[in-house]
Amino acid sequence: PEGVRAAHEHHPDIIILDFVLGSCTAFDVLDQLKLEPDTRNIPVIVSTSRQLAEDERQRLASETAALLSKDRLSREVALARIRDALQHAVAAHAGAPHAGAPPAGAPHAA
Questions:
Q1: How far apart are CA 95 and CA 26, in angstroms?
Q2: Neighbouring C-beta atoms of residue 52, cutoff 10 Å
């Protein structure tokens, strides 16, 4: 997808991704991002209005910085999740642990 190419070219601090993307899903994009060293550590926030199966929710919880449900999404929650992901990315780049970051695999759906 075009977004994966853009991530390789521009090295964004964070990616906000809709779950359904035309002919592919967020899983396809996440798989492609994880293949390359220059994109595998970019925090990804997935937003969806789709009812996800438990295994899909678990996979997204383990592979993304946050999962936002459009049905229950408020501006405040979205901004908090984005801020947390950016702070975690900055801390990871600095090599220091981030005290406010959720542990890997911790539920973080909004």
A1: 28
A2: 16
Q: Is 71 exposed, middle or buried (0-12, 13-18, 19+ CB in 10 A)?
A: exposed
Q: Residue 14: CB partners within 8 Å, gap ≥ 6?
A: 42, 43, 44, 45, 65, 82, 85, 86, 89
- Residue 37 DSSP class: T
In whole angstroms, give the CA distance from residue 41 to residue 34: 8
Enumerate the H helices of 11-74 as residue ranges: 26-35, 54-63
What's the pTM value of the predicted model, to 2 decimals?
0.74
Q: Which of 35, 42, 38, 39 is nearest to 64 (CA)?
A: 42
In order along its 110 residues, the chain shows pLDDT tens digits of: 788 999 999 999 899 999 998 889 999 999 999 999 999 999 999 999 888 999 999 999 999 998 888 877 677 887 888 888 888 877 776 764 444 444 444 444 44
**Which residues neighbour 94 within 8 Å (Cβ) at sequence distance 6 or greater?**
none
